[in-house]
Amino acid sequence: MAPKQNKQKKKVAAPPAALQKDAKKVKKNPLFEKAPRSYRVGAAIQPKPNLSRVVKWPKYVTLQRKKSILLKRLKSPPAVNQFNNTIDKNQATQLLRLLKKYSPETKDAKKQRLLSMAKAQEKGQTAETKKPLVLKYGLNHVTSLIESKQAKLVVIPHDVDPLELVIWLPALCRKKDVPYCFIKGKSRLGQLVHKKTASVVALTSVKREDQSELEKLCENFKASFNENTDHRRRWGGGVMGLKSQHVTMKRAKAKEIEEQKKMGMHIG
Fold first, then answer.
1. In a domain, 113, yes or no
2. How does pLDDT run across 231-263, given as a tens digit for each residue?
3. Can you say whether the dihedral through the CA atoms of 191, 194, 198, 202 is positive or negative?
4. pLDDT of 111 over the 90 cut
5. Nearest to 169 by CA among 211, 215, 225
6. Is residue 174 a part of any domain in this protein?
7. Domain residue limits at 227
8. Paired strand residues for 182
9. How many domains are there within the chain?
């Protein structure tokens, strides 16, 4: 009989420390017991689901959304598309800060001014008869100011409805060499003139301390809008939804692969 060989057992490497910790059972704290909720009939109250996708929105909201989607999808001519090229946030804040200084007086303020003038005249004193420098608004009024070249700067909102009211204004401003710009929100311009909305506002003159600021703005807007021929040539719209974009990309990719295969066959 051959002597038995002592077979040495191979040592297995110990698992990493992170796994050893997970393997050890964590002792449960009796103070914090699990109490899972039951949402069966007569049990816990159901959690509030997110119903934003199934909400029936008011008709005006749905119409607004449908209109905005249509404007993105349909191709719009350059005359309409130019209204999408508005000034940026920094320029808008700078412009509105300047315009706010020349906000027209309210009815009460005008009443007080006229009363003080009348009292001064009654006493035999000379009252100031000069009208204060204010923003001009109203489509017909601003148009006549542009035609007579009295307007120094014209501000047009991008969301005038119907757009036909102001669609011709940029062309008139360019013809008369009056600086103009597009700004987001007709309500913002309306606030300046104490109305709900304003379709256009214009500055005819400013105080001496604001003259340099106005000139700088006019110079920037002339370069961006009056002399920018790109606005008058670029068509807008034609932006499809995400799903249709993916479909067209998929088709283009398949077409490319097919062409490459044909090229390979021709070379072979």
1. no
2. 888 888 888 889 999 999 999 999 999 998 888
3. negative
4. no
5. 225
6. yes
7. 83-105+130-231
8. 156
9. 1
